[in-house]
Amino acid sequence: KAMDGTKRKDMHTGQLVRIVQKHHQRTGELTEGFVQRILTKSSTHPHGIKVRLDTGEVGRVKEIIDEDE
Q: What is the model's pLDDT at position 2?
């Protein structure tokens, strides 16, 4: 089961996630990619931890993809 992205401790670089970019917030369109950098400093965020993907796209994590599934 995919975890949501509200807890910073669940994140690490290189992890496969789905994010919502700012300009997609209204539609909820998800962008899949690998975490390059965790941008949120606080341990939790109700709308998702903000990350930068290795593609340079920035958004809040909505789902953490379990690559073992």
A: 67
Instruction: Using DSSP, state whether 9 is helix, strand or coil.
Output: helix
Q: How many CB atoms within 10 Å of residue 18? A: 18
The DSSP annotation for 16-67 comes to EEEEEEGGGTTTT--EEEEEEEE---SSB-TT--EEEETTS-EEEEEEE--T
CA distances from 68 to 22, 25, 37 (A): 29, 28, 22
Q: pLDDT tens across 26-53, in order?
A: 999 999 999 999 999 999 999 999 999 9
Torsional sign, CA 18, 21, 25, 29: negative
The model's pTM is 0.90
Q: What is the Cα–Cα distance from 57 to 48, expressed in whole angstroms?
A: 15
